[in-house]
Amino acid sequence: MVECNKKGSAAAIAAGIRRALPIVLGYIPIGFAYGVLAGKSGLSDTNTLLMSLVVFAGSSQFIAVGLFASGTGPAAVILTTFVVNLRHMLMAASLAPFLSGWKKRHLTLFSFQLTDETFALHSAAASRLGECRLEALSLNMTAQLSWVVGTLFGIVASGLIDDVRPLGLDYALAAMFIGLLVGQCQNPVRVVTAIFSGGIATLLYLGGWHQFHIIAATVAGATLGLGVELWTRR
Amino acid sequence: MDQTLILWTIAGMAVVTFLPRLLPTLFLSGRNLRPVIVAWLRLVPPAVLAAMLVPSLLVREERFDMGGDNLFFWAALVAFAVAWKWKSLFATVVVGMGLVALGRYLGWGM
Lengths: 234, 110
What we know:
The complex is a heterodimer.
Chain A: H1 9-40, H2 45-54, H3 58-69, H4 74-85, H5 87-95, H6 104-112, H7 116-124, H8 133-158, H9 172-184, H10 188-206, H11 213-233
Chain B: H1 3-27, H2 35-58, E1 59-60, E2 63-64, H3 71-86, H4 89-105
Helix pairs in contact in B: 3-4
């Protein structure tokens, strides 16, 4: 395994950019779809770009744009964002043991850019995180830069596109969830958990819960999945 | 909606997104959680993704719908296969959006 400390800064930054390339490929088209939809939903160009800069959480940005379009108030938008992004807390918690030698300002920057995709790459090489700080930060920065670039393309295109439906742009979020979900389903217990959670969310949604179905189904699905895991292990 | 109000909402979104990302790395490094809690936490990402995804595929206009003209559902089956085979977010998104676009072009579904 390469020892990061022995590499120069330029080599570490380059390594981070190289590792981020698969994320860049995903983020540019999805960021583009977000930029177009935000413009079509009545967000100003500045607010559309600002959200990609300060929130940087793809799924919640799409959901927020939909809520803005339907006239939902600020409190409900913020609460939904909190619920949808709470999963990053679990990802941060699982990386935390490997970040023990980092300074606070580096941890702050690293955490700000922690997404489903950057988490997947970092957790696959978690044991190297302690000494590969610059490479990890470069990877994260490249990922957010590509998200912002995709958003900018989308903002420009938003003025040129009359209707997003013929391009399938309104399907970007669902397709992204499918890609992320399959990446998360490495063993049967996780598949069962996803089926429980998806089924419960659908029933709650049909029952009239249009915001809290996500958190309620998540807690119920993960708990049932844990039950299956403990039961099959005996 | 007023753009200034949206701006403040975005600021609120930034705070509630950043804190859950930050607090565990600042305060949890070096500590060990109980194994059963860790096992539960590991199941949360697939659970939350499925909770956000599945209703958007199976419910249309407040009703359960797996009919032939539910384009989102049928495109999802192909997108699942693509994601499973190629493990690529890019390929999954492009194929999913492409199928929905194609379906609408051919006048299939809505």
